[in-house]
Amino acid sequence: MTADQTVAALRKWGVKFREYPGWRTRGRPGAFGDVRGVMVHHTGSNSQSDDYLNFLFVRGRAEEGIPGPLCNVSTDMDGDLHVGAVGRANHAGRGSQTTLSRVTAQNYAGYASELRPGADNVDGNAHYYGNEVRYDGARAMTAAAYRTALLHAAAVCDFHGWNALAVIGHREHTRRKTDPGRNPMNKFRTDLAAVLRAGPDGDDMANADEVLAELRKFQTAEAQRYADLANRVQALTDQEEGRYADLQRRVQGLVNQEAGRYEDYVRRFNAILAALPNGASQQTAPEAVPESDDPSSTS
């Protein structure tokens, strides 16, 4: 997409955006003509400052050999979209050719589950537009940011003739990453598909509050699943501890039973000796073995 095409697409879909100085000519050296999809990220920071935009679009992480721009666009928590680079950006890095092939084909089960990336064997920067959502990723996006991310993806997909399966999260590109945080990408693609079906003038655009409510329901369900799993693990632990304690009691019972039988044997032997003539009764009965509290004792 050229700069003018980008602006036209965003306006068509009603995206509230700001143009960062120099974006119309900004991009990394290298091929960017074979674009296949959109990749959604989170920055890992809640900073909404202008300096952070400069970091994303201009400075980058040059000291690490990763100069800017680090994305094509960035989405604020309040829903503003900043357009920072028209060309190639250092956002995706090395990732899965398997994922890229599925995105290109647009026929995988991406509405039911997230993609599991294969080995890092392709340069994603050459094939994906990058949207960095400015938040820490520790929770779901704000409703406003989520809505804007949907609209930006819709604008790009509409321009290229892609469906919602052309949009992935960074973690679906490489196992090294976790972004975009607590936002299931199969849910994002499902919402995006609804937006694309409705069109830029449709009235079926997902309501931001409804989207946020759905995300919170998902988070609550995941938390409950984790709690249920923890309870089941604890129950199994308690059960095993109970079985071990019962086994100890049974072993000790057997030891005590055998000790009692031996004492009874000694008493009976002594009684027999006492009934014999005096000479024979001088024999000594076996000594009683003291009762042991240790079931492992062999002495």
UniProtKB/TrEMBL annotation:
Tell me the segments the record calls region Disordered: 277-299
GO-annotated molecular function: N-acetylmuramoyl-L-alanine amidase activity
Q: Which GO terms describe its biological process?
A: peptidoglycan catabolic process
Domain (N-acetylmuramoyl-L-alanine amidase) spans 23-181
- The biased composition feature labelled Acidic residues covers 290-299
InterPro entries named among the record's database cross-references: Amidase/PGRP_sf, Amidase_domain
Q: Which SMART domains match?
A: Ami_2
Q: Which SUPFAM superfamilies match?
A: N-acetylmuramoyl-L-alanine amidase-like
Tell me the domain of life.
Answer: Bacteria
This protein's name: N-acetylmuramoyl-L-alanine amidase domain-containing protein
